[in-house]
Amino acid sequence: MIVAGILLAGGQSRRMGGGDKCLRLLGGRTILARIVERAQPQVAALAVNANGDAARFADYGLPVVADSVAGFVGPLAGVLAGLDWAALAVPAASHVASFATDAPFLPLDLVARLSDAVVSGADLACAASGGQAHPVFGLWPVRLREALRRALVEDEIRKVDAWTARYRLVQVGFAAEPVDPFFNTNRPEDLVQAERLLAREIGTPPAKFAT
Asked: What is the pTM of this model?
């Protein structure tokens, strides 16, 4: 199975006070730099889903693709953007893995474990930890991109769960201790907690990016 990856950075970050929360600093480096470092080795190709001026992501050397459906309609628009990009840029890819860009400790084996679940018979797979699903960390077949487009445009579906309910979805559980790998930095106080986790050297690979 060949898997491409899409980094979902198309939201408006209201709880963080606006702007690109993935470009906030954590341990002297951007959150996005840490996420790219963890996600990129897991996929055949990687792109950023973001709206507005793509130049702000130039330092990362990744393609930047805007939402395929306008109006900030949620993460499914970013997933669709990733599927559309992969269909053109990575035609050998059968699936696209999506990564939220506010979770700097995401698992290094995320794509491998989601792929195993799909190979075992599911249409879609998403991550879970501590009894909670994380649907934006998912594995999506490229063959469903037109079905997703219709769901967004014609059916006006916005919630990830509402769309995945149409298919065979498996949740892949990850340990939430000693730290939840899907801990997200949605608010300023979350950044403070993330700094504490970094100080304990939990879940962080060697630094490569100077960004």
From this structure: 0.90
